[in-house]
Amino acid sequence: MNKYPENAPFIEYVLLLLRRRKRISVTGASMLPGLNAGDELFVNERAYANTLPDEGDIVVAWHPRKPNQKIIKRVSMVLDKGCWLIGDNPAESTDSAKYGIFPFKRIIGKITYRC
Amino acid sequence: MKNLIKSFFPAEEVSAHCDGPCGVYDPADARIKAEAVLSMTKKILAMSAPDPSDAAAVVAYNNTMSRYIAIKEDQAHGTKTDILVLWTDFFKPVHLEANPDLHDIIWKATKLCSACKTTVSLESAEALMAAVQQIHDIFWAAKGREVAYYTAS
Predict the structure, then answer these.
(1) Sequential DSSP letters for B59-80
(2) Dihedral of CA B142/B144/B148/B150: which sign?
(3) Phi/psi of residue A6, each to 5°?
(4) Is residue B152 domain-resident?
(5) Terminal Cα distance for chain B, rounded
(6) Among B17, B32, B82, which would you mutate to test the A interface (most chain A Cβ atoms within 10 Å of its Cβ)?
(7) Which of A104, B33, B72, B151 is within CB 3.0–4.6 Å of B40 for a Cys-Cys bond?
(8) What pLDDT, on the 0 to 100 scale, is given for residue B59?
(9) What does pLDDT average to over chain B?
């Protein structure tokens, strides 16, 4: 069962003020049904500084081919050199099924809460 | 209070994306599959039949040959699909004006995919690679970018 981010406690807003969180807005349909276009989320870009992603994490990563485009996907598997990322809505997702493993250095951060 | 804080930190758009709406295309998909077709064709042609009285060798031969054929057919069909997606989804009328023979190039390339699928022809497999390179050149010229053609093998 996929877990979706919950509404943020106030501390997340404090972390945003301290620049320990960033805000992102979802576009596209690949994370339906849990995340819709327009949903706003907090991302912790230091989440994986000292630890690897966990399976089930929702992450922001660099698009493998399109420079400067960030994408949001879920970690399906954690492998030796990177993660297998998939959309929750595979019918409308371009992800590791097409691009293969996302190296760890291409994973930007972890979604923490809704904002 | 939360809304006040949020107003100071605008949200950056991050894509839960799909190739359909975001328009990410790359003829490299077709090239990788066409390379597999060429590789399997060479491997099939290099096989030599074992002594029919050696049952184990015959089984091994049939198994290997079947796998080569299965991959060749699958990848040839995949190459065709990738080329057709570029044709139907990426190329626009303006590209046709710049490349009046685009339809003919695509048609011949996809015909080569069929030939590679149904026969074992080194000539067709090499011609398919050349056709994929031609499409690569047209594609990147259409995008106004210089992207060098290369092969993985």
Answers:
(1) HHHHHHHHHHHHHHHHHHHHHH
(2) negative
(3) -95, 170
(4) no
(5) 59
(6) B17
(7) B72
(8) 97
(9) 92
Comparing alpha-carbon positions, the chain B residue that sits nearest to A72 is B16
Distance CA A93, CA A100 (A): 13
Spatial distance between the Cα atoms of B92 and B124, rounded to a whole number of angstroms: 28
| Six token digits for residue B18 | 């799909």
Locate tokens 């930007």: which residue?
A: A108
- Contact between A27 and B14 using a beta-carbon 8 Å cutoff: yes
What are the sequence ranges of the domains in chain A?
Answer: 10-114
Q: Which CATH superfamily is domain A10-114 in?
A: Umud Fragment, subunit A (2.10.109.10)
Structural domain harbouring B83: 26-142
ipTM exceeding cut-off 0.90 for this assembly? no
Q: Which two three-digit tokens encode residue A48?
A: 């994986």
Note whether residue B40 is domain-resident. yes
The C-alpha torsion from B74 through B86 and B101 to B128, rounded to 10°, is -30
Given a cut of 60, is residue B22 above it in pLDDT?
Answer: no
**Domain count for chain B:** 1
Contact predicate A55/A75, CB 8 Å: yes
On chain A, the residues whose CB falls within 8 A of the CB of B16 are 26-32, 35, 37, 71-73, 87, 89, 93
| B75 belongs to a structural domain | yes
What Å distances lie between residue A104 and A11, A49, B17, B81, CA to CA? 28, 10, 20, 31
Letter string b/e over residues A62-95, b meaning 16 or more CB atoms within 10 A of that residue's CB? bbbeeeebbbbbbbbeeeeebbbbbbbbeebbbb
